[in-house]
Amino acid sequence: MPRIGPITLPDFPLLLAPMEDVSDPPFRALCKKHGADLMYTEFISSEGLIRQAAKGLKKLDIFPEERPVGIQLFGGREEAMEEAARIAEQAGPELIDINYGCPVKKVVDKGAGACLLQDVDKMVRLTEMVVKAVKLPVTVKTRLGWNDHTKNIMEVAERLQDVGIQALSIHGRTRAQLYKGEADWTLIGEVKNNPRIHIPIFGNGDIDSPEKALEYRNRYGVDGIMIGRASIGAPWIFNQIKHFFATGEHLPPPTLDDRVDAAREHLERSLVWKGEWEGIVEMRRHYANYFKGLPNFKDHRLKLVTERDPKVLLELLEMIRTEFAVAA
To answer: What is the CATH number of domain 256-327?
Structure first.
């Protein structure tokens, strides 16, 4: 069983990837309920956190039902990351994670995220400062390298392990790829099988089915898998994968009731955590994913993404349950 400091995870854990505007407490709670073993917050700007920016502080919220949780930080200034790590530690997560993988231009332009793959010496200095600043385990999420000509993940893994990180999650693309093309897990497997590496190595990228999860577990020998986009609108993917690992058989696909129940719970949790208006607005990106594949759903989706009254939204979800059940 993989260990991250004092945290013992189940045999071959499934992790929920940190996703901006997705991996918030309402969504994390749903994924935990449906089998995720370790959650990460949305990434939080170190600069925003030390300025006490409201958005960053809100992202520190953690609730008992979603633990264990890691708070993920990003930034390019060493002193800011050190201070932000101390602030994050006070929020009571199980671990602190550093983002060296975000490929988005506005993050990279600040010398943060995947930008640090171009300056491994600075990445190592920054990581060591965070490790020394907190008592919690520190982990890292990164990519294979900056581009196809600089896939330096082996050097990164060894050097970050040497300064004290306790697990490494690797997305199987370079920064230049963004989210395009196919994730290449070959180097992830090589890092895992490097005799110098003794920390858990988690693979990330393109895992969207139980069959693929099993194939990549067996082929690359990683300690666990981190799942991101495939969980959006489908938090049950974690239990689907676990069931397939255990039995070789598929769980029945989620029913219409399952989908409505998940969307409803997600909305209700969002309303409680974010407040009425923000909870309604930020939930709008999720409806199409929960009801993907339902025929003639366009008009229902339009109502869901324009309605402003939470009571009416809940009624609309129940109407979907009734109407599509009759149609089936």
So the answer is: 1.10.1200
